[in-house]
Write a structure and sequence with these properties.
It is a single chain. By secondary structure, this protein is of the alpha/beta class. Helix content is about 55%, strand content about 10%.
Length: about 300
């Protein structure tokens, strides 16, 4: 008896494609892509959900079965919890504005800046998952052709090895329905590729959301034609504060954190959202191991030492 480990294995077993899963489950292509790449929150549970659906409909061979979700005692963490901080709200407002049809005459390139770990990637990924008209592309040092190929794949599930053919595919996909293309780690892009994206934005009226560290701003300032198309305000992610930490612990795992403890947690993570979440998982593990139900200074200190 074999276990399905991830969506890639499930597709191989069934002969289906990501596009098939998107259609059968009613999920966006971006959501399915994030599940396949293990970047979607609780992606394992989504794979199990798809496996159960396909098994019940006869797509999965008998030797494969849906894994059982283990039952655990103690405090549990809802990893789907997203705290709508000012950072998140600003990103959502900007992205909504870029997608709005009435914004055609406005600058249609948005920019989100912030240090690594501040949560900007989590925010834009979540937006793409929740909005079928937005697609998320992570820049990983691709060539010009590869960048536009990834965009075409994200939009319609197909692409070409030819740069200009990918441009045509993107233009066809966005001609009838306005789409927002989110480019993460855009600060790593050569200026020439950013110029190509600006051309796409201008010629096909495709809104863009560029996401990166603060050096992205300096890169954009080197090109007047790009800078003039940046919509205000530029969103700069701020480090987490005590209110965010208190809300995160309460909503994610039901723990009450007073302001003094929140300050300790912020000092522990260096105001880094990603580290704060990792610390929370470690703290909950310590509490469960020791049968504790209340977070205290001693628990935080134990987590800091370990």
């Amino acid at each position: 008896m074999s276990r399905i480990e991830d969506l890639g294995m499930l597709l191989k077993v069934t002969g289906l494609t990501q596009a098939d899963i998107s259609e059968k489950k009613g999920w966006s292509r971006t959501q399915v892509s994030l599940i396949a790449s293990r970047n979607y929150p609780n992606w394992q549970e989504k794979v199990d959900e798809v496996l159960r659906y396909l098994t019940s409909n006869g797509y999965v061979p008998e030797e494969y079965v849906a894994p059982q979700v283990p039952v655990t005692d103690g405090i549990t963490i809802d990893t789907e919890t997203i705290i709508r901080t000012d950072n998140y709200n600003a990103v959502y407002n900007l992205a909504d504005g870029l997608l709005a049809p009435e914004s055609l005459l406005n600058a249609s390139i948005g920019m989100v800046l912030g240090k690594a770990g501040y949560g900007k990637t989590t925010a834009v990924k979540r937006y793409a998952v929740e909005h079928p008209d937005a697609v998320y592309v992570l820049y990983m040092g691709f060539s010009r052709t590869a960048v536009f190929r990834r965009i075409a794949e994200s939009l319609v599930g197909r692409s070409s090895g030819m740069y200009y053919r990918n441009i045509e595919i993107i233009e066809e996909a966005t001609a009838m329905c306005r789409k927002l293309i989110i480019i993460d780690e855009a600060d790593r892009m050569p200026l020439s590729i950013l110029e190509d994206l600006r051309t796409l934005n201008e010629n096909a009226s495709v809104p863009l959301l560029l996401v990166g560290e603060e050096s992205l701003s300096s890169l954009v300032r080197k090109a007047d034609r790009i800078e003039s198309r940046i919509r205000k305000p530029v969103i700069t992610f701020k480090p987490i504060d005590t209110a965010t930490v208190i809300a995160l612990y309460k909503k994610a795992c039901g723990l009450t954190v007073d302001p003094d403890l929140a300050k300790r947690l912020i000092a522990m993570c260096g105001r880094d959202f990603r580290i704060c979440v990792n610390d929370m998982q470690h703290i909950v593990s310590i509490m469960n191991q020791n049968g504790l139900a209340e977070i205290t200074k001693e628990v935080i200190d134990a987590a800091r030492r370990s």
